[in-house]
Amino acid sequence: MKSLQDTAVLNNGAKMPWMGLGVFQVKEGKELVDAVRTAIVKGYRSIDTAAIYENEESVGKGIKEGLKAVGLKRDDLFITSKVWNSDLGYEETLAAYETSLKKLDLEYLDLYLIHWPVEGKYKEAWKALETLYKQGKVKAIGVSNFQIHHLEELMKNAEIVPVVNQVEFHPRLIQKDLREYCQEHNIQLEAWSPLMQGKLLDNKVLKEIAAHHQKSVAQIIIRWDLQHQVITIPKSTKPERIAENAAVFDFSLSKEEMKRIDELNENTRIGPDPDHFDF
Asked: What's a Pfam family this protein contains (predicted)?
């Protein structure tokens, strides 16, 4: 990983940038359009959204503006969205995909994910994703917030192994067993909320490592993600922060530094527990 355009090769051969822009909790409107445009201009090639974020239209507009600004084509980008829990089901998921495409104003998605493992529903949704993939409507399919047992259950009947599992991952939740399981089964792990929504920015250990490298704590965490071979999608709408987050390819963390950060783990979540959620 030497630049923002470097990619991981997923288990179906698709190439996904190691780093992208997340847009969780950013509302429709000019701020989001500008953020997506800025990210593309700054070199980002991956954008992650979801139906439940209710911001796909602005993401789509930002993509159009960004591509025009730098003279790129649609296939130069990697765009992800996710099907929400209320749309899990075979026909419902197929319809939800078309709705997301329409809102984004795109002809296809690079990656489509099941957002949460709702019991009794995610297998039918996965069949729909397999259909979309076989029809060439989406380049790759995967899941989000799946624990090991969810993945095992899914793969009992699945024809296609998920390419990605996007989960909460940061120094307070290093998900070691899940990470190793995904590596063994060639499922790429991807981190949402890599900065723990800012709750790690004052951490003493991280500040010390950041000072040593003359980097920000956010940059240290993002670099830690990448050196763990975890794709990461930090969220920001501020141009200076979008640029700063991407400036992580001119240094590396030592084995000792990686170990110190790993030891911050407390198995602490800021998001819902995938085994205990009610939405």
From this structure: Aldo_ket_red
